[in-house]
Protein 1
Amino acid sequence: MPTFTFDLNGETVTVDVPSDSSLLWVLRDALGVTGPKYGCGVGVCRACTSHLDGAAFQPCTTPVADCAGRAVTTIEGLAAGDTLHPVQQAWIDEDVAQCGFCQPGQIMAAVALLAANPHPTDADIDALENVCRCGTYVRIRRAIHRAAGS
Amino acid sequence: MEITRRRLLAYATATPTLGIAVRLAADLGADDPAGAQIAGIVDFTDALTLAALPTQHLLVVEVTAAGRVVARLPRAEVGQGITTAVAQIVAEELDARLADVDVELEDARPELLFNQLTGGSNTIHALYGPLRTASAHARARLITVAARRWGVAAGRLRTRDTAVVAPDGRTLGYGVLSAEAARVTVPAVVPVTKDPADFTVVGQPTTRVDARDIVTGRARYTQDLVVPGALPCVVARPPTLGGTVRSVDDSAARALPGVVAVARIPTGVAVVAESFDQALAARDALVVAWNPGPSAHLSDAGVRSRLAAAVPAFVVPPLGSFTVDRTFDFAFVPHAPMEVLNCVADVRADRAELWLSAKSPIVAAQTVALRLGLPVDQVTVHEVRGGGSFGRRLFFDPAIEAALVSKAVGRPVRLLWTRADDMHHGRLRPASHHRARATHLLGNVVSYEHRMGSVTLDGGHGLGEILTAVGAEALGAVGPAMFQLSQLDLYHFGAQTRLLREVDLAFPTGSWRSVFSGQVRTVDEVMVDEVARTLGRDPVAFRRARLRSARLRAVLDRVASAGAWGRPMPPGTAQGVGLHEEYKSVVAYLVELDARDRARPRVTRAVAAVDVGRAVNPRGLEAQVQGALVDALSFVLQAGVHIDGGAVRESSYTDFRYARMRDAPLAVEVHVMPPTGEPGGGGELGVPAAAAAVANAWARATGAAPTRFPIVES
């Protein structure tokens, strides 16, 4: 099988898997990185949202081959040691989570949004596609505004 | 039901550290739940609490030598926040720091009988008293040991921050007292629970105890667990609901890389492979001929007409212009939790071990044992945190499947339903047809009749056994019994009747957050608005004058004032209100709806007021009330599924249009009312009232009450 080398949360990893393997299963099952969740496998629910070279993407619809030589960041790579990323802290401060399953993806989507747009309006936040079946949207919105310092 | 005059007997378990359980012997007779007659049960909450009562003495609160307080909770945590609330209750009565309390989900314990079913928003209502009692007993023993060591009268000692405190300020942590406390048979202080006026933890808005685990990705769900050797597994499923395999050619699938095994099971054809990618590819390569399922002749129109034909007739004849008659239809709605159904199973010749999030793990263990031909005590079901449920995880379909596959292939498996599997075969809130008739004279409603025809609700997850245990089997099948136990009259409307007629159309159904109330109360509350409109009365004032309870009036008044009821709104937008009472709790919502684009209506703002008797965690309750509104606006406005020839048309969140951020209100203000009693339920409570408020706002914004749900056809 071919090998693929990429940066994962600041460390170089090499995996030996079929080239059409989806990154989600490579992360979860080959590398034991389980923060990104399977919610649909077709890029719709976005529970697996992570970053590829800093931009939000869905590992479930990304072949591992597309990640070779690039930087993948999952929820596990967001905090600096014990110091949470401000968006993670905002999520705790607003007590956003209910079941929590979608929240790693929600946080990664929010981090990407704020990187591109440090002070998003409500209309900007409305464009987030991530599904939360517990309906935590009101608190997600508040957490994003809080993290933006607005 | 009266369980307040309880007799308390506590015992320390024979463990090296303090483990306290509590025995409650109520007047009803703790060993004779069937002795309680249905007449003593006011509602479904009473039924569940009563069924749990005989085994409450098996609940355990433990203090470890390391000073951790461990409560083992025989319930499922699926996002509703009970682990946080239970930690608060235990911390309160033990005077432990909240951070020192661990709430662990209990494996299936068959000896708990009916006390390990998570449903009916009953967890806190049923466990609040027993947990407080157990914790108070543990605290009394810890004090007793500290008094001995210091030679100080026990009555002079206090407890604080997981430690006993002497009058001179010395402290002894619970951990160092635990072993000796386990041997205390008669504590030196009377173990009494606190006066709620002295609470410092219960009643305080508290962030989830697992919030940090969740935001760092450390929270572990079933598929995140490491079970050595467990291989990915998916199942090819029939194109129609309940279809079966006629024949299968798996030669192409078996030839694909990574494929370990293919196994036929009653629900389809399972593929086990080295990776999920390989399992999914092999599943696609299977050539399966399917027999149609039992409802393959039915589509939406056929379901609707069957339900309409089944609805019982009204008793009260129409009174000409003094009658308001309406009909309503609700589509099937899937639960669609974010975490799809899944299970890890390791079945050996003589035993089985399973991991999943199950709301009825005892019945799951019993069923798996039966299907595998094993004694039930050789089947272990580990309870894992769940990624949402909304009723879905009352059923444990993936446990049966995973157990059968593991047995067939001789390997542990990690069985996963895909999202499309979940949409196509997941259980459904039953579709229903409703007819309602109100008659009025001189401005008052003098009769109200509501007739519901519903696809049969499947309660085959132990609910029927519970209802039988408390003597409620006289109410009939599970659906009608639950229906009768959950529908309360909110108003003085003269003679009122609500009847359910179930029609068995062989669809896989299940309780969906608030069960029948989601539809029933929506219809009732739309009817209230319709009668008020007919009479030219303001909907809030009309309700207020006829409400049966002061608690309901209080929440209505609160939303009306906080939500500025009656404020001027632009054309095409409107406010709406809805009320609900269930689970010993009441709630009101006032929503504002923008329906100027009829194809994309949006609830822009909402105010809710909620009285659950006593909110253990107001912050968690607020979350439930907010989330319930999102559920409600989804199924009222835009989210349901279609049936085409016995198959669910939708296959993902693309076409099943559960709300996204752009559909959710910008702000939801939740007023948690001051305590009025003991804790009731709050998890499902909001759904019916919120749905009613959204439906009424639609009627007022567009000038026509909705007659079918979801309102926006897709």
Protein 2
Amino acid sequence: MSSEIFLGVARGIPLTLAVTVAAFVFGAVLGLPLCAMRVSKFASLRFVALGYVVLFRSIPPLLLVFVFYFGLGSGYIPMSAFQGVVLGLGLIAAANMSEIYRGALSAIHAGQWEAATALALPVRSAYLDVIAPQLLRVSLPSTAGYAVGLLKESAIASTIGIADITFNAGYIARMTYQGLPVFAIAAFFYIMISLPIAALARATDKKLRARLAL
Amino acid sequence: MMNLDPDTFKMPQARPFGQVDKPILRLEGIRKVYGAHVVLDDVNLTLRSGEVVAVIGPSGSGKSTLLRCINMLGPATSGRVVFGDLTIDEAASPTTQQLTHLRRSVGMVFQSFNLFPHMSVLRNVSLPQERVLGRSRKEANRRSLELLARVGLEDKADQYPARCSGGQQQRIAIARALALEPQIMLFDEPTSSLDPELGLEVLAVMQELARSGMTMIVVTHEMNFAETVSDRVIIMADGKIIEEGPSKQVMRDPQSDRAKRFLKAVKDR
């Protein structure tokens, strides 16, 4: 019986990972232009980006996912539950990632821009060759921390019927009346996914720090 | 202040003032203000090809700011930079093409080196050649290794900058700037963040560069370098050039009171 519970909850792992990874990638990519807008020399762009960040950081993720899936999804823009939750969490992730990037940007020495400028590097190269790699490097610890947070937030997917870890645990708990062991198993899976992310991030950070003294 | 050890540093063959070529760079009426504060007040300067000019003066006198006006890293409020056929009005927005032309012809070395920390030494020197001059990776690397050898650091090619001493980093930064085959080199207090010994190895490279005929403007606190390596010394104070002329003459027999006071202060320590 208990191995059935274990396997039953484990069947949710792929969808938990899928929601987390999709929302994270969505946010990590969209966060870059958002960060660029946030530090733009044009006040209007800065204002729009600030508005975006404030808005999406103020709405509870659960509510936002409901807005997309039950609100827009029912008639306006047809979307699957998976699309709804990735869109909701991803847009919030973009707001948070842009703030992480912005913090990392201020940690990059002004001399890096000056050297790139004095060397006549094209703007594209200054961003892609000089700034972006350092930005990703500096933001790595915060990014990993946020990814773990997103993993836990992905449990929201269960509320709109996505069979992730939490969804399966809830289902099995109701079927077996064994709430405590079932949810403990679910928690165990979340921990077992979080730990390697944190460990990998720490190891990478340490390695890069030693090599680059950044 | 440091002394150049005569065993390490042979005195350069002095190139007397005036025995240099035609003007290569002209600064006309450079003025820069921050609000009510005048940082540069109508500075005019003509640089001849092959000339080495040392710019000295108290902190806050506008030396580094002037240097940054030349390659438009920090454009002035008004004035013009004339470089060959190119005339740039500091107040107007130059085209990207003009800026690229100017900056690839005018190399710059910073006080804080500003190497790219996430790239190997070789990559630091090769990347600008590929992106700005369009050289192939192989071609750029070949040139980079030549230049690293010239500054005595070819064995550091595969290291990261963090693994190099400050003096080595600054020599790499010089190689990186030289890799774009500039016609003028600007040095912004290149040894100020180095301890005296490490400063020496950078000065040696700069001295070699000066002797090879490179046109250089060096903002510095190294009075010995100013006197013995440069052809001309400019003393700045309060955003103005208060004294200029052949190095030895200016360093040993300044005319204005302000220049006398400054030189007395730096020499009497």
